[in-house]
Write a structure and sequence with these properties.
Two copies of one chain form a homodimer. The first copy, chain A, has about 250 residues and is α+β, with helices and mostly antiparallel strands. Chain A has two domains: about 5-130, Jelly Rolls, CATH 2.60.120; about 150-240, Winged helix-like DNA-binding domain superfamily/Winged helix DNA-binding domain (Arc Repressor Mutant, subunit A), CATH 1.10.10.10. Helices cover about 40% and strands about 20% of the residues of chain A. In chain A, a hairpin with a 2-residue loop joins strand 11 (about 220) and strand 12 (about 225-230). Chain A is globular, with a radius of gyration of 18 Å. The two termini of chain A are about 30 Å apart. At the A-B interface, strand 6, helix 2, helix 3 and helix 4 of A face strand 6, helix 2, helix 3 and helix 4 of B. The structure holds a DNA duplex (30 and 30 nucleotides).
DNA sequence: CGTTTCATTGATTAGTCTCAACGAAGGTGG
DNA sequence: CCACCTTCGTTGAGACTAATCAATGAAACG
């Protein structure tokens, strides 16, 4: 809930975008990099707990995550919160705010983050000048929808244990594709409250469910956050076949 | 589950697109209509129960609904089904299949439908030739994401009664914007099984929940389908403030 | 007119929530 | 450096929500 000061610098020129390093990220050609370089306004460095984008605001820029974790969420009037999805490097946020009137959800940092910041007014110009990048944006929007479809299936129809297993298998796969998995293990910077608000469960029942997964050796809960230990077991428990592994764009 | 024969005719030229009639649908200019006319391959007429798009297929065209109701869904291996969203006139379906490898969900007709069918290979060309239409497609993708966000919030965090009320308030608003609401009442062509699979509840509990809404006078269950009677009551019960009412594009 | 689909209802069980209390770790201010 | 406070994770008990099982009637379908 904090809204920490966030500095705006420019550490990574687009020619040396850190996202290039990841295997299935499709490279841009020279013209595109040049255009994006002008489209980019700067970088936003955000601390843990910073609200990067707030529901109801229309100001909003468009961001690509360069490093760090965040989550998207909505709340009901009485405070009940639902986490909609997680945001990892290469993900685009704020498109809703750019394309529609205003944001209908918020985004909060789970770890220190660096974000690449774009000017939303220039989006129509981008569509005119660089159809290939416009297509990439649509691709990313489509992927977000696909992830939401899976998450909704999970929350609606899987049992608590399956749901939890699905969540960590999902995060593992996404994190792996951006080089965050070391030694086939992953550290996820979440509180149990985040897990509960993702799965649509109470915090107490979430705790009991996580204990079961830990007892099976699928993961381990640490002081603040959790370590995914056995990705395959999580896939088995959730009966999920995993994300399609295809080359993906980024902007 | 039926896959009825579906005929392909061309009853509505783009210049006389039936979607023009709806108040907040943004009109296209002449150039756009001309282009869309070439982009359009024909019309698909689908019966109740027809699978318009199937999970795992990549063939898939891109469709805009001209009339009728459908729903998008995913299933788990053991048959548990989650309905992800409903599809009404003006909605675009099959974008995932066009942009990514293949469809990750299915779409089934709830009523007789007429769909406008586009050739997916021409999508990159559309992005090159008509950035304004490309932008509209992105707008529609963003709107779908926004709807999914709300539905996920509902399934994850609302009680059974609130969830059911939200569903019918949501359908009422969407249907109203495409002229389906007469006399402030709406007929929704659903079985209780559809409602259950949308809300993530069992059919028995869904039945009991719907009875409560009916007892309050918010809706009425008929032989096959339901009539929404009191939209305001549904809004109150679900504590939902409704969809933003803004002009929207269509293709 | 038999068969299937759909809605309905009651009884029982299972899963999840709420309430409550406590301990451990980390942060803060004196 | 210590004392206090807050946050976070953990656990048990009891209450409640929703699932499952089972049976029935009504309407649609062939």
């Amino acid at each position: 809930m904090k809204n920490n000061a966030a500095s705006t610098v420019r550490q990574y020129p687009c020619e040396r975008c850190p996202l290039q390093a990841f295997p299935h990220f499709q490279p841009h050609d020279k013209d595109e990099v040049e255009f994006l370089s002008g489209f980019k306004m700067g970088e936003l460095v955000a601390d843990i707990g910073t609200t990067v984008l707030g529901e109801g605001t229309s100001s909003a820029h468009l961001f690509t995550v360069l490093s760090g974790w965040a989550f998207r969420y909505k709340t009901l009037e009485d405070g009940r919160r639902q986490i909609l999805n997680y945001v990892l490097p290469g993900d685009l946020i704020g498109l809703q705010g750019s394309v529609m009137k205003e944001m209908q959800h918020s985004v909060e940092a789970l770890s220190p983050m660096v974000l690449c910041m774009f000017q939303r007014d220039k989006l129509p110009n981008l569509f005119r000048s660089f159809p290939s990048i416009a297509y990439d944006i649509t691709w990313l929007a489509s992927r977000e929808e696909q992830m939401l479809d899976e998450i909704l299936l999970s929350v609606g129809r899987r049992s608590a244990l399956e749901r939890a297993a699905y969540l960590f298998a999902f995060l593992f796969q996404r994190a792996k594709s951006v080089g965050m998995v070391k030694n086939d293990k992953l550290m996820v910077p979440l509180r149990q409250q985040h897990v509960a608000d993702t799965l649509g469960l109470s915090i107490v029942h979430t705790n009991k469910t996580l204990k079961k997964l830990a007892a099976k050796g699928a993961l381990r809960w640490l002081d603040r956050g959790c370590e995914v230990l056995d990705h395959q077991m999580l896939l088995d428990i959730s009966r999920w076949q995993g994300l399609p592994s295809v080359p993906r764009p980024y902007i």
